[in-house]
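Audit log entry. Action: structure prediction of a protein-small molecule complex. Ligand: zinc ion. The ligand was supplied as SMILES and no pocket hint was given, so placement is left entirely to the predictor. Protonation state taken as written. Sequence taken verbatim from the request; no trimming, no tag removal. Recorded inputs:
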Amino acid sequence: MPFSDFIGNVETVQRLREMLGRGHFPPAVILAGAEGAGKYTLAVMLAQAMNCQERRVPKAEKSEQSLFGAALFGDGSVEDSAEGTSKSDELPDFCGHCANCRRIALAADLDARFAEAVEVRENLRETDKKETRIFVQTHPDVLVIPPDPPQMMIKVDQVRHVIRNIYFRPAEGREKVYIFTSSAFMKEAANSLLKVLEEPPEFATIFLLTTNPGELLPTIRSRAMTFTLGALAPAEIEKQLAKQRPDWDARQRALVARLSEGAMGRALTWDLQAYVAARAQALVLLKSALGKGDHSELFKATESFRPGPEGWKKMDELLRTLYLLLEDIMFLQSGTPHLVRNTDIAGELRKMAEAADFGWVKRAAAGLGEVERGLRRNLLRSLSLDSFVAALEPTA
Ligand SMILES: [Zn+2]
């Protein structure tokens, strides 16, 4: 799986590869971007490129490394794959099949590896459990540091583990790689990380992944180089979905491409079935609110919401879908139909846009805000939905 498999953000990927090719890769890199933008995928690919056994290493990178190694550890060992036919204008890549590439690739499915690590900890004795932090490691030189449950924060013990580990030369690769998958650091953890960033070893790279760089300490940001993965155009996502989700038809692919807000990862893992189910209910609510009198459909819809985590999740999906539909109706009313996301039901939305005036849509959006606040105060969910709809009924 070489870099050509990374979809979009071509210039950013190229710049990172150029720096790698010149042997001047920064010791700390912030990869910023929305959920599902590909930050983790790219970090894992770079870790592979740094350690691929088939890759020819340019002289600059090699001499810096061995010099540093000699100074610190008296180890003058030099990689021998560097000599010979390397083409200097060729961007570094990775083969995907050497032992290093394959083992690092095992970390690519972060959710699965994370779940395994959590399960291992769950099975420990109570005393050990407290002291064990979650890591994902499929190669001795590549360590993935996810937020530690249940708080889902990066904790100081995780950073301490990195500090204990980072100053030893790589065991089987050329470069040690540390990937922090979230910028939600506990205060003490952030301060400890800062110490590493002040004096990073030459043979290590730290990736900090974040949806919001502002969450990181300014002193951390100033010691790292930031790259942002931007949103992809819907057409680009549709093209990729055609290859990877042949189970979806063209209308479904067009819909998901617009709903995923330019994030490839979100598009590929989109729960279309759940979305369509939530949307069907949202449509019932809106139509009921637009019409007069008979609310039996509405009661059927709201009755299905039961308390408990399952009910909360459904309610959350319903509210998000309601907002999306209201926005789409507004796009239609304001003459910007190309911005509509729910393209597969455009006809239905157009009818609603004609039936409702702009003031109604505004009231509906405000009413949804009320429902959300009501939910946070823990009101009975069906009750607050019913009153939302009742408040929107045409008064005449
Ligand atoms: Zn390889």
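Audit: result stored. The two ends are 63 Å apart (CA to CA). Strands lie at 28-33, 136-139, 142-145, 176-180, 204-210, 225-229.
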